[in-house]
Amino acid sequence: MSPRCRFSGRVSGIVALVASLTATPAVAQPIIRVPQFVVHAVKLQVLDETGWFDWTGSDEVHAVFVDFNANKERATSVYGETDTGDTVEFRDQDRCIAPLPDCNRGARSLNFAIALWEKDWTPAEGLLGCKPGLVNGHPWYDDGICPGDDLIGRAQISLSQLQLTGTLPTVGHTVERMVPLTGGDGHYQFHYRITRLPDIERRIIIREP
Question: Which of 191, 146, 186, 154 is nearest to 66 (CA)?
Answer without folding.
Answer: 154
